[in-house]
Amino acid sequence: MALEFHWTLPTEGDLQGRDPGDPTARPDHWVTVARAAERAGFHALMVPSGRHRPDAWLVAARLARETRRLKFLVAFRPGFVLPAAAAQAAASLQQLTGQRLLVGVLAGGDIAEHRAHGDLIPHDDRFSRAAEFLSVVRQVWRGRPGGIGLRHEGVHYRLQNGGLVRPLRQPPPVHVGGPSPAAERVAAEHADVYTLWADSPGRFAERVRRVQALAAGRGRTLRFACRVHVVARDTEAAAWAAVEHHVGGPVRDRPADGIWTGHGAWRTPGTPRAGTALVGSHRQVAAQLADFHRLGADSLVLSGDRGLEEACRIGEEVLPLVKVRVPAAEEAL
Q: Between 20 and 30 A from 26 (CA), which of 57, 142, 154, 175?
């Protein structure tokens, strides 16, 4: 399958909610980012979910009106909404956007996030619930075969006479992420795409092989996405200077391979972002991204410290270099 490029929209703003007057946390700025991402050649825009962010479904619906080809990877958490309601909302957005929806399911995550929404289920039980949730969602999308409504009696959900009135002809691809074995099992059984954090080549490839084997044991195949933050400049020195400017001090744990795992330490609490960053020249970062594709990633979910500026920079300076290395890379334009 062709390599696809996704960009992340920081709806809480580039300042991560630290300034209520941040102009990058406003709808008109999101529209600008979406249009720029489409022009830059990105396949999809990832719209994150969280209590410090606006509703991802509504943001995606708004931005779909301002773009023509850009798809939207909308993240949400089982437990915050019933599966039949989520299936109906996804079906509606899929139709309204002209089949431009991708669904991201977040099963784990911060306990405080779940408690803030009144979801008190223990962490380890969220994955069994997510598996049942996705099973119900897919059944609802099938409609009512033979006019018979869906009946489901499960551990977490019970449905009577369920199912869409009309089956969803093109269900959106379902993305599942998470580093735990439980998340891997959910993805192997129910996802179309499993999302991994960028990691050392050996560990990344090993996880791809392990989860693909889990899926194969269930008679399924998976695609894989690599989620990573990107800091790319004309030179490697300039890239690290940009990192140090952003974090407000020197970075002493610079890795030799440019895969910086210290990025997560600089995140604002409550506004999670990618914990791993690629730092280097445009050519260095392009080579690393191409390597992740060779290791099994079918899509690259990228982000930057400034959503608009970095989307344009990566689109102009890095993606063309990746496409040279990976001729089958998806052309969004």
A: 175
